[in-house]
Amino acid sequence: MGRIIIFDTTLRDGEQAAGTRLGTREKLEIARQLARLKVDVIEAGFPISSPEDFEAVQVISKELEGPIICALSRAIARDIDECGRALAKTKKSRIHTGIGVSDIHIAGKFRDEKYGKTIGEKKTHVLQMSIEAVKHARNYTDDVEFYAEDAGRANRSYLFEIIQAVIKAGATVVNIPDTTGYTVPEQFGALIRDIHTRVPNIDQAIISVHCHNDLGMAVANTLAGVKNGAQQVEGTINGIGERAGNAAIEEVVMALHTRRDYFGVETAIKTSEFYRTSRLVANMFGMRVPPNKAIVGKNAFAHSAGIHVDGFLKKRETYEIMQPKDVGFPESRVVLTARTGRHGLRDRLEKMGYTLSSEELEKVYQRFLSIGDKKQEVFDEDLMAIIQDEVRPVPEMYHIEYLHTSSGTGTIPTATVRIRVGSESRQMAACGDGPVDAIYKAIKLVVDIPAKVTQYEIQAVTSGAEAIGEVTVRVEGKDTVVIGRGASTDIIEASAKAYINAINRLVYQKGKSK
Ligand code: KIV
Ligand code: ZN
Question: How close is the Cα of 211 to the center of ligand 2, in Å?
Answer without folding.
Answer: 7
